[in-house]
Specification:
The structure holds two protein chains of two kinds. By secondary structure, chain A is mostly beta strands. Chain A has no helices and eleven strands. In chain A, strands 2, 4, 5, 9, 10 and 11 form a six-stranded mixed sheet that branches. A five-stranded antiparallel sheet of chain A has the order 1-3-8-7-6, with no helix packed on it. The radius of gyration of chain A is 13 Å and the shape is globular. By secondary structure, chain B is mainly beta. The radius of gyration of chain B is 13 Å and the shape is globular. Chain B starts with a strand and ends with a strand. The chains are: A mainly beta, B mainly beta. Chains A and B meet through β5 of A and β9 and β10 of B.
């Protein structure tokens, strides 16, 4: 079945640094979604991508839908303490509405 | 977008007991989804709850253990039955909203002792 490979698994960065994480798949996705999950909360949608090559920004966040439809990245510029959390990529399966999830990238900001 | 209220937000339960989690959506939706998220893990779909029909369970999840109700288009419950410590997880309900992707409740953090 379809799978999403997300990396890195975790990141330790200094406040103010830029962050980059990505998801890849061996199969094509028509939509890529990026979510953030804060401790004790459900995931919240950050950015949705629908077209190959699409580059979309949401404040300090930028995400791109790879031209091959098999990958996507999420960048966070000038990280701040509230960026801490787990970031997930997700995409709907070809056959139905169900989402497939990456394993998540845990972002930790060093004081 | 959709606003989802889920409760309880957390609970500590004795093994062998059952807990029912409620999920209320502020708009009518055809399908609601129940996920489990074990500590440090990604989300795993338990089942899809459809109004007027039985829920559709994913591999590894059965109705006897996770009975689901869907009495109308804005509400669903998930029961975790005969709990054991291995059931300690975050349980999340979710809905799809057109092209906006999935929206989630705040989750129920369950600890079984």
């Amino acid at each position: 079945g379809q799978q999403l490979n997300q990396s890195p698994q975790s990141m330790f960065i200094q406040e103010g640094e830029d962050v980059s994480m990505n998801c890849t798949s061996s199969s094509i996705f028509n939509t890529w979604l990026w979510y953030k999950q804060d401790p004790g909360e459900g995931p919240v949608l950050l950015i949705a991508l629908y077209k190959a090559g699409e580059l979309t920004s949401n404040g300090r966040l930028t995400a791109q839908f790879g031209i091959t439809r098999k990958d996507s990245f999420l960048n966070i510029s000038a990280s701040i303490p509230s960026d801490v959390g787990i970031y997930f990529c997700a995409g709907p399966q070809d056959s139905n509405y169900q989402l497939i999830w990456g394993a998540g990238t845990k972002l930790i900001i060093k004081p | 977008s959709a606003v989802i209220s889920q409760k309880p937000s957390r609970d500590i339960c004795q093994r062998g007991t059952s807990l029912t989690i409620q999920c209320q959506v502020d708009s009518q939706v055809t399908m609601m989804f129940w996920y489990r998220q074990q500590p440090g893990q990604s989300l795993t779909l338990i089942a899809t709850a459809n109004q007027g029909s039985e829920a559709t369970y994913e591999s590894g999840f059965v109705i006897d253990k996770f009975p689901i109700s869907r009495p109308n288009l804005t509400f669903s419950t998930l029961t975790v039955s005969n709990m054991s410590p291995e059931d300690s997880s975050i349980y999340l309900c979710s809905v799809l909203s057109g092209d906006e992707g999935a929206f989630f409740g705040q989750g129920t953090r369950l600890t079984v002792v």
